[in-house]
């Protein structure tokens, strides 16, 4: 198991290098730093001196890949590629356009993101699976058809509608909770409630239907017939046996997103004014802060790879037949 | 008049030609026709296809672009207007040109905002002024408004119903009377035919009423600069369709070639292709799209000389968005096709072809690709609705279509702060979400029917 994990982590490196090269290509080769400077400083009436100064401030004034003027190791290390891309492997993301340290900013913004994303994830998962199991229980009846129709309808509604509509109803019309904002500590509950509720509701359609198909694939297998033959109630069969055996396909889709919960949700956070990583990313996109976007791309792929490894480990926990070697 | 073929127009008509050619090919082979025959027996599938085809018609009309010749000639040379308009604009010119000063509610007669007006007695009065076009023909509003609206709706509905009946009669006379086998269409059985009949009549009645009302009112109100919201929503359809279809068209060659190659050749080819898609799929898609779109924006900003008109520029941006969405989303389909090819290549008929010495490219194109096409088709129709929804989100995030391109995303983005007004301006958002819901719901229902018809794992009675 340990050897397997080490191998998986070593295998992650080429992927991360690929991600790194891809983002480097996107951000520095497709457009030159001069283009970016002109974009930042306004298109017209920008002097070459201003461009040089901006590039120097951002650290983009070095050669891209190979510094022919430097000697020895700094031939490679004194370049944009080394300074901006290779440093990301030790989570040194440099500074944002407003001069703040991106790594520190990420650390402080992770908590609010997690405060929204984690409850949404847990409550959502429990609700969706229960809902899907009940649809499976009533399969073939009008209730099941109604459930599926509801799912298709709910998944056809834009995610933006849930947020805008929910904010309007709960925040503006009924005055249950503040429309947006965030404070730390125990008071944060009233700010968290609405985003979590909306996040859970907006996922019912797609997830409910997805889990229903997973359970329906299990329901015709032999062990289900055996369980029924033993005289177990249909409810026991579903929640005890089918759920357990459907764990592998469920975990495949679920575990991989757990680390990504740190990244928060772009839409929810920006609509509700949560100072998390999602709104950080959106602000960076709108301000065209390439350093922050690059950092988030890298962080996202690291977390995704962690998620893949966790998925493999979780298989061994639910299915004793799976051995990692 | 000078026809203008924008990039996305060309892609749309290419896609249309491909679909028609595909239909022509399928019609000759009963085994290819069989799943479509199953689609044609589903009432749900046929009704959702009818609704989808209405959207597609608006989109196609909106893709025939041209520039109008200006009346003044420059040294005998015709000068063309800088504005690119479409055949749809010409048809809906009434909606397009009747702009008010600012917001007005659906079916309203008065403007949303108050203005200072001079009464005949010379006093200055602050009140909501009458609209320039909405209900301008009414003399006495309190007395006539409701009666006029009801009358126009009923007359329009009746006219629509009549047209619907005529349309059905025409279709029946032209196609269905002779039940010949020469038709390139699957036979529609009785129950979906009844559903289609009822839906057509209902829709015709509804559209008749709306069209008649739209001639003298703003049925869905007007937006901040006074444009008719109904017109904006109808114009948004094309953007949604372009994103939903062209993106998959971009995805297809990558997913198909790489997926099949990885599954068929295995070994180092498989390793490289797997590496590429692991790298691409390990970046959260919104972030990758955002990064690519930001870079694309810089490139477009830096080269204003590439584009003759602002429409051409917005169009290239739309096409690049499709390209980027496609390049970041082919991995899922690629993985599916790789798995399927791995299974297929072990089957006897492929082994037989190999031992006969048939070349690999020929095996791939002749024996493997036709047998994974159902996966491609299912993926295409299933992805469509997700892409339409994604467009709205991306436009909100700021990495969507050009702000001058009308789309559901730009509509929602412009309107979302209007919910904070007092009284609230709800109609733009309602129109955008409503249109999107109908389009996506129809697409989802149709996709379900297509998937059930093509999925070999489901047992079919016929």
How would you describe what is shown here?
The complex is a heterodimer of chains A (325) and B (462). Chain A has 15 helices and no strands. Chain A has two domains: 31-90, no CATH class; 105-318, MetI-like (MetI-like fold). Chain A is mostly helical. In chain A, helix 2 crosses helix 3 and helix 8 packs antiparallel against helix 9 (189-218). The longest helix of chain A is centred in the middle third of the chain and has 36 residues, at 102-137. The mean pLDDT of chain A is 84. Chain B is mostly helical and 462 residues long. Chain B is built from 15 helices and five strands. In chain B, the strands form two sheets. A three-stranded antiparallel β-sheet of chain B has the order 1-2-3. In chain B, strands 4-5 form a two-stranded antiparallel ribbon. In chain B, strand 2 (65-74) and strand 3 (77-86) form a beta hairpin. In chain B, helix 8 packs antiparallel against helix 9 (267-282), helix 13 (360-397) runs antiparallel to helix 15 and helix 14 (408-415) packs antiparallel against helix 15. The model of chain B has no long low-confidence stretch (mean pLDDT 86). The interface between A and B is large, with 46 and 43 residues.
